C-alpha cells in the first residue's frame, strides 16, 4: 500500500487517465475530487462492501432454495 501526504490543491495521478485532487480539509474530513474517463467506475468503499455483502446473501439464499427444490 502506498500512503501519500497531500495539501489542498495538490494532486495524485493514477496511470495516465486518473487524477485525484485534494479540494478541502476540515478537521478530520478531507474532500477529494476525481477526474477519470467515464468508462472507469468510481465507487465509495462502503458502497462496494454493501453490494458485496448483498451479493453473498443472495447467493446463499439461492443455494438454500436449490437444495430445498431437490428434495
UniProtKB/TrEMBL annotation:
It is found in: Cytoplasm. One of its GO terms (molecular function) is mRNA 5'-UTR binding. Keywords: Bacterial flagellum biogenesis, Cytoplasm, Repressor, RNA-binding, Translation regulation. Belongs to the CsrA/RsmA family. Homodimer; the beta-strands of each monomer intercalate to form a hydrophobic core, while the alpha-helices form wings that extend away from the core. A translational regulator that binds mRNA to regulate translation initiation and/or mRNA stability. Usually binds in the 5'-UTR at or near the Shine-Dalgarno sequence preventing ribosome-binding, thus repressing translation. Its main target seems to be the major flagellin gene, while its function is anatagonized by FliW. This is Translational regulator CsrA. The lineage of its organism: Bacteria, Bacillati, Bacillota, Bacilli, Bacillales.
Amino acid at each position: 500500500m502506498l500512503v501519500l501526504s497531500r495539501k489542498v490543491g495538490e494532486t495524485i495521478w493514477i496511470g495516465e487517465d486518473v487524477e485525484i485532487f485534494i479540494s478541502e480539509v476540515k478537521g478530520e474530513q478531507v474532500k477529494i475530487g476525481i477526474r477519470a474517463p467515464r468508462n472507469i467506475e468510481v465507487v465509495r468503499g462502503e458502497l462496494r462492501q454493501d453490494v458485496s455483502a448483498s451479493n453473498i446473501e443472495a447467493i446463499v439464499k439461492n443455494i438454500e432454495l436449490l437444495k430445498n427444490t431437490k428434495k
